[in-house]
Design goal:
Blueprint lengths: L1 H10 L3 H7 L3 H26 L2 E6 L7 H16 L4 E6 L7 H10 L4 E5 H4 L18 H9 L1 H8 L7 E15 L14 E4 L3 H9 L3 E4 L5 H7 L4 E5 H6 L8 E16 L1 H5 L3 H35 L3 E3 L5 H6 L1 H11 L1 H9 L2
Helix pairs in contact: 1-3, 4-13, 15-16
């Protein structure tokens, strides 16, 4: 700055000569130096004030997935609404660890935001396990209405006592079954198949009840396990199958639609508590916009995903009679009702 240059030039003059020339010089020198330092301090202070605060946001899949779509829409809104007071830095493809590690990172305050499946969350917030019950939702419209309504919004409040702040429900879609052994058309076809499930007791019980060998596994390990034959198959929505290019490691896909899979947009309590009310509003609104972006991504994949998967040589069973699968799950349904309450299940079923 000009003040700095003047100051540097000034202090290089021989002090004694200046003093002899003008007895007031030491005072003026001191005054100018003080002004210069004050100006530099003010400039530095402004620079720091304008620096955006980083928000680390992690998720399991690639950027070009429903997770990525949700994260980007969330980031765009918050950055714009806060005048770029925040800058989102995305960590896709489990760069910060699997979903369990991401959730723990929120609780510890080492991660600010995540998009995560209910499959992993149910180990931290047991109440949300109810939405993972097979064939609980009639269709996508039913599931979205439940989660956007009183029931779903009340579920979001359950996170707080578990050291998490959940802001909105996004979506993955309905889960389907794939494997490398043979097409699955009926429950009997599942017998003995080693199926990767999330670390989710509701899912594990369902597949065990239908005769499969459920193998809980974190997502980062799945592709390698399928390649090596450690597991025979997995179950995920079309959005995941396409984003992860599972056609590279799976031969058969059956559109069972056995479980609806939401995702939650969650922030760290420590981070959220540090925000102003206006900033909190921006994050909440941004999360809702991100949730809608994830749903739009899923809708688009549902329209063209099957054709794309078939084009890569996967045998896809599209016509499935779910009644036998539901009948095979009767013992599991009794346990679900005992755990979550039949009244709760009826409440979800009654939503029109």
């Amino acid at each position: 700055s000009l003040l700095q240059e003047n100051y540097n030039a000034f202090v290089t003059f021989p002090h004694q000569r200046l003093t002899r020339m003008n007895p007031m010089m030491p005072f003026r020198r001191s005054l100018l130096a003080t002004c210069a330092v004050s100006a530099l301090a003010a400039t530095t202070s402004v620079a720091f004030a304008q620096q955006a605060r980083e928000v680390k946001v992690g998720y399991a899949l690639a950027v070009n997935s429903h997770y990525g779509a949700g994260a980007q829409a969330w980031a765009d809104h918050v950055e714009k609404a806060t005048g770029n007071a925040f800058k989102f830095k995305q960590f896709p493809s489990s760069a910060l660890g699997g979903e369990r590690e991401l959730i723990e990172g929120l609780q510890l305050g080492t991660v600010e935001a995540i998009l995560v499946s209910t499959g992993a969350l149910s180990n931290f917030v047991p109440e949300i396990g109810v939405v993972d019950i097979p064939f609980l939702f009639r269709d996508t419209a039913h599931a979205r209405k439940v989660l956007d309504g009183d029931f779903g919004q009340d579920l979001l409040t359950k996170f707080k006592k578990r050291g998490l702040i959940a802001l909105a429900w996004g979506e993955q879609g309905f889960r389907h079954l794939s494997n490398n052994k043979h097409p699955v058309n009926k429950p009997e076809d599942l017998k003995g198949l080693k199926i990767r499930t999330m670390e989710n007791p509701v899912h594990i019980l369902a597949f065990r009840t239908m005769g499969a060998s459920p193998t809980p596994m974190a997502w980062p390990e799945v592709i390698g396990a399928l390649q090596q034959g450690t597991i025979d198959g997995q179950e995920n929505p079309l959005s995941v199958f396409v984003s992860a290019k599972l056609w590279q490691v799976q031969k058969n896909l059956t559109l069972t639609g056995h479980v609806y899979a939401p995702i939650a947009l969650v922030v760290s309590p420590a981070f959220f508590g540090s925000l102003t009310d206006a900033q909190k509003t921006a994050f909440i609104e941004g999360a809702k916009i991100g949730a809608q972006a994830s749903r739009k991504f899923v809708d688009d994949v549902e329209k063209k995903g099957v054709d794309e998967i078939k084009s890569h040589g996967v045998n896809v069973v599209t016509q499935v009679n779910n009644a036998p699968f539901q009948a095979a799950l009767t013992p599991a349904y009794k346990q679900y009702a005992a755990k979550y309450g039949q009244k709760t299940l009826d409440q979800i079923a009654a939503v029109k």
